[in-house]
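Quick one - first record:
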Amino acid sequence: MKFILNMHDKVRHLFKKGGKLEAVGPIFDAADAFMFTPEHRTSGGAHIRDAVDIKRVMMTVIYALLPCFLFGIWNAGHQYNVVNAVVEAGNAFIASDVFAAAFLNDMIRGLIIMMPIIIVSYAVGGFWEVLFSCIRKHEINEGLLVSGFLFPLILPPTIPLWQVALGISFGIVIGKEVFGGTGMNIVNPALLSRAFLFFAYAKSMTGDVWVAHIANAAHVDAISGATPLGLLAEGGVSVTDAITSGQISFMDMFLGTIPGSIGETSTLACLIGAAVLLITGVASWRIMLAAVIGLLSTGYLANFIGHSPMAQLPPYYHLVAGGFAFGAVFMATDPVSAAATKAGKWIYGFLIGMLVIIVRVANAGFPEGVMLSILFMNLMAPLIDSFVVDFHVKRRMKRV
């Protein structure tokens, strides 16, 4: 590392203001800051000494996402192998009547499915980050580390790569860069990317996420490609029958061994990530808890006033169904787009949980609900904080 640092020091002047390579200076600064401690130091005035900076916060989020990422790799490979009835024979994959695959086979197939999506997300997103940084002549921020990692995890594994590129481009450019870059966005860029694809290319984002591979299966009738929420949204099956028959299994949804978006299916993996974020103080426990309370209370209310299969689903099933756990842990708690005041976080989180149930129950065309709920509350977060601040100001003025 000392050799690399010396090389950086020798060419550093070329990337500074007035240097021959000034135009691409942000690229050099990003590489330098990623590998070494920045050379800039505060020299005067009051300042806080803290080892936690944006880079370390972003890396903490990446660490918290790793359980979802690793499980998503295995589950993507496992679901593919189950649908295609693939087992390893020598060095080749062949079709079989045995619907099982070795762990290694699942991981290898999962990597084959997952890694191109990750690479495209980072490559295309990084291109836009670098382009805007060079044009504006500011440093490349670490925000892409999280957005480029989050976005693939909320996509179905059958998503075309060109749609991945288009989606991350929309989220980075329209959702973040037009507002000024990292820290200036009003909505979560990764979630906005997914919303764009959801409305522009709904067929690729919803429905039977493994239908592209079912044609090669040995026994198509034995396989259901629909997610549990998709099954209820389609109708024709009662909640009691679906639970009794095992079509909707609480444990399967909790563990995540079901079709769905790559990183969202396992509530257990999300809880491990939540523990990392809460222990390190990166995410707000108020938002997470409030979202759970909002979801459960509205879910119980829906049981009394609703008649559709989705409305009759036991409220605690909603906790493990779809992407609620992933959204509540990693999306709703985004410090930039979430509410900032303590009371505002409770209101913000509660309304997210409430809206998830309303969307799931009242609109059969959107059986998930988490994406729309968080994006809507991202837009409402500044208004919530404004009301909370105004309330405290008026209360204190009465004491004067």
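second record:
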Amino acid sequence: MTSLILKNAQTILTMDAPGELTDTDVLIENGVIQAVGPGLAGAETLDATGCVVTPGLVNTHHHLYQTLTRAVPGGQDALLFGWLKTLYPIWARFGPEEMRVSAEIGLAELALSGCTTTSDHLYLFPNGARLDDTIEAATTAGLRFHPTRGAMSIGESAGGLPPDSLVEREADILEDCLRVIDAFHDPSPGAMVRVGVAPCSPFSVSRELMRDAAILARDKGVRLHTHLAENDEDIRYSLETFGCRPGQYAEDLGWTGHDVWHAHCVKLDHQEIDLFARTRTGVAHCPCSNCRLGSGIAPVRQMRDAGVPVGLGVDGSASNDQANLIAEARQAMLLQRVANGADAMSAREALEIATTGGARVLGRDDIGRIAPGCRADIAIWDVSGIDSAGSWDPAALLLAGPTRVRDLLVEGRRIVAEGRIASFNFARSIENGRRLVLKLMS
């Protein structure tokens, strides 16, 4: 039996009753939190003096393959559709190595920002790339992983947005969804990998594929994910092509319910928010990407008040340019204040969205809290440095706190130790990434 005890933390933000604790230890055994309380003893001690301890953050939307295409000229100042058209030809040159290395770098970046669990939406598979490549990267990095098998089936010649070279036959898509679910999905408590089904968007797949994907996912007991209502272009496309708003489109095709979560939802109206609340349909809020692409401010305050499950997502690094989840939580807080007033969202509520909120969206009750029985996914933040200097409330991390963790535990294992990636050879991944970017640029 492996055991570890966290001691001497300044504050523990449990995201569970009773909330904020001092003079408290956390005992971990075999990847599970066994006890939270004073005076605990363990075989090995991890000293958290001068630190705030939180649950590991949960990222509910990412495109890890995009890490090798940050700040690409031509796409830096474009709206969503123009940005995609700039990047599709570059992504078409990816292969298995680009997918794996890009994912390794993106996962390390997430880990340094306090993230212990991430989903990933991979919807293009050029030159022999497979979902297996990113799952391999997550296994190497040591993060808890929710990969989703995405897809595009309508190319430019059929009126879609992506080039024909990046679309697949719908029968092949469904067959590969079954393959990766059977090969990798683990429904058990504490699972490190859970697979979802995720056609890319209403403007890149057919209605038939959306409906068939929902049927397949429910038959296999896995979750559903896609992009929805991201910006005004998205709404206009839905109205012109389907004769209805995105929420109605989703409901008609079986894409609402407690096993579904949609990315962005910037342009949901009141009726769609009510629909999501009634059906417990989740939302992955991606504030930085929404700002970068000029998409708007998602109505998160209204969603939360109505009871819609909301988590955070960094989105892809080609539309965010960073994958820092604690910074994403701060941005979410600030944007709701811009839209609704200074008291619209507290630092603690935004942190709750980034932890228990994300866990709820991904259908997990075993992460997102520091409580006995939960998995030992824990972020340790050093608040003794310049980021928190002068702060009267170090627990208000999103107001005055570090944006990189000192230590990060996933399943009780140190993924980050003293501010450095400890789970794999990160320097080699960075070097491989530089080599691949130069190749793509040439």
